[in-house]
Structure formats: C-alpha cells, structure tokens
Amino acid sequence: MKILSARDYDHMSRQAANIISAQVILKPNCVLGLATGSSPIGTYRQLIDWYRKGDIDFSQVRTVNLDEYVGLDEGSDQSYIYFMRHNFFDHINIDLANTNVPCGTNLDEKAECARYDAVIRGMGGIDLQLLGLGPNGHIGFNEPDDYFPKSTHKVALADATIQANKRFFEKEEDVPRFAYTMGVGDIMQARRVVMVVSGAGKADIVKRAFFGPITPQVPASILQLHRDFVLVADEAALSKL
Ligand code: GLP
Predict the structure, then answer these.
(1) Which of 130, 121, 95, 123 is nearest to 21 (CA)?
(2) What is the pLDDT of residues 169-206, one digit of tens each?
(3) In this predicted structure, what is the pLDDT of residue 17?
(4) Cα torsion at 101, 155, 83, 72 (round to 10°)?
(5) Does the beta carbon of 36 lie inside 6 Å of ligand 1?
(6) Which ligand 1 atom minimizes the distance to the CA of 38?
(7) In this structure, what are the phi and psi dihedrals at residue 133, rounded to the nearest 5 degrees?
(8) Would the CA dihedral through 139, 142, 145, 146 be positive or negative?
(9) Whole-angstrom Cα distance, residue 218 to residue 32?
(10) Which atom of ligand 1 is nearest to the CA of 133?
(11) Side-by-side strand order, sheet with 178-181
(12) How far apart are CA 210 and CA 231, in angstroms?
C-alpha cells in the first residue's frame, strides 16, 4: 500500500488524475474502472482539462463503472450513468460504446449480474480501478457484511449509506434502497487500485480501513492486501493516522 498525502481536495484530484493519465498514455486502450460520489469529481475535472489541452486521448479507452442504483436509468439525474456522462464522458473523446455501467432498470438480478461480470471478463479485467470510500468503509456499494462478495451482485444499501447519499436527492424516501455493484473480488483483481479520500469526516474510517484489522465489516480494509494499491488522500483525511 502506498499513501500519497495531498494538501487539499484539488491537490488530491491532480495527483489521482496524474496516475490515471499516465495509465492512459502508457496503454491507450486500457480498461479504467470508474467511480462516482463527490470524491472523484475533481479528478475527472482535471482529466477533462488535460484532454482539452491535447495531452490525453481517450478514443480507445474502455471503462467499467463500479455500481448503479436499482430502478434508476440515464434519464434520472441521480443515476450513476447520468453522473458519468455529466461529469466526464460528455467532455472527452471517449466512445460511449466502450463505456459500461450496470443497468439499473434491468430488474432481472441474476441476468444483470451475470451480464456485467461477462463484460468485465470480456475486457480482460481492469487495468486501473478508481475508488472512493464510503463513510462506513464501503467500496462501490459493497457494504459491511460477514463476507467479501466476489462478483457483481445486488445489494441492500446500509442505513449509513442512505443517510450519506440523501444529500443528492430531494428527500430521503427518494434514495433507492438497492444497487448493483461489482464485487470486492472484481475490485481486488484490478491490476492497480487508486482511492481518493478527502476531508476530516473520513479520517476515522481511513484509520480503521488501512491501519486496523482486515475484515468484511470494513470492506475497504481488504485493499491492504492488494499488490498495487495507492491511497491518495488530503491531510484532513489522514489527520488521525
Ligand atoms: C457512493 C458510491 C461509492 C462512493 C461513496 C463515497 O456510495 N457508491 O462508490 O465511494 O459514495 O462518496 P463520496 O465520495 O461522495 O464521499
């Protein structure tokens, strides 16, 4: 595990964007695993800026997103497919046919999970997976549990997650209760994992996840075992170490 300490959110975002940019330059048709939430927005903004300056070419890049709310589609501004278009894909030269997000409106859970796992396999796995960190230690939507789920599955969102994510919705009742998410096994198989974490509110969970025991009750803790895991965090998020 490598920890990069950043001064603040913008510095964290530039550091993460630098790592992703190097990946795309070294392997133009790489597979990027992408994340949503407020943490990676600055990283996407920086990558867009470098794209506009002519420094990065996304034309051959392929992507797989971590997760999607069950029941939402691209017409909903809270869906993760909408988030990705709005915050990243619509501003770069990526081919949308090369981007993948679990389909929230496919209510056939078995079929959707099998389809998404086949997508990841078909791409030959993930070269670089970008992650945020949930307030309860979740990665993607892998919530605290008694085991680490291996592959894509449907999950009931933890109350802590509903509370944390309700800020994006008009009211708490609007937050979907279920999501599709890649498994912890899929994430662990990515060749490199880069996590962005910012703010004093994440300081306790950063300490528990990366300096505490490896346990499915803190799903991110398993990243301690990843052979190429980079935590990019600002000083506030690292303040409890
Ligand atoms: C959501 C996403 C996670 C993300 C988490 C943290 O629950 N499913 O992938 O890491 O939010 O979000 P934020 O970066 O806004 O704190």
Answers:
(1) 130
(2) 999 999 999 999 999 999 999 999 999 999 999 999 99
(3) 98
(4) 90
(5) yes
(6) 15
(7) -130, 120
(8) negative
(9) 24
(10) 10
(11) 67-69, 178-181, 153-156
(12) 9
Q: What is the pLDDT of residues 135-148, one digit of tens each?
A: 999 999 999 999 99
CA–centroid distance, 40 to ligand 1, in Å, is 9
**Catalytic residue check, 86:** no
Nearest Cα residue to 66 out of 120, 12, 22: 120
Determine if ligand 1 sits within 6 Å of the CB of residue 29. Answer: no
CA distance linking residue 202 with residue 135, whole number of Å: 6
Task: Give the neighbor-by-neighbor strand order of the sheet with 192-197.
Answer: 2-6, 229-234, 192-197, 128-131, 31-34, 62-65, 99-100
Classify residue 139 by its DSSP letter: B
Residue 232 CB partners (closer than 8 Å, separation 6+): 4, 6, 12, 15, 16, 19, 194, 195, 196, 197
**Residue 235 a catalytic site member:** no
How far, in Å, from the CA of 178 to the mean position of ligand 1?
A: 14
For residue 109, indicate whether it is catalytic: no
pLDDT value, residue 237: 98
- The whole-angstrom separation of Cα 191 and Cα 187 is 9
Phi and psi at 2, nearest 5°, equal -115, 135
* Residue 193 backbone dihedrals phi, psi, to 5 degrees: -125, 130
Predicted TM-score of the model (pTM): 0.97
67 catalytically annotated: yes
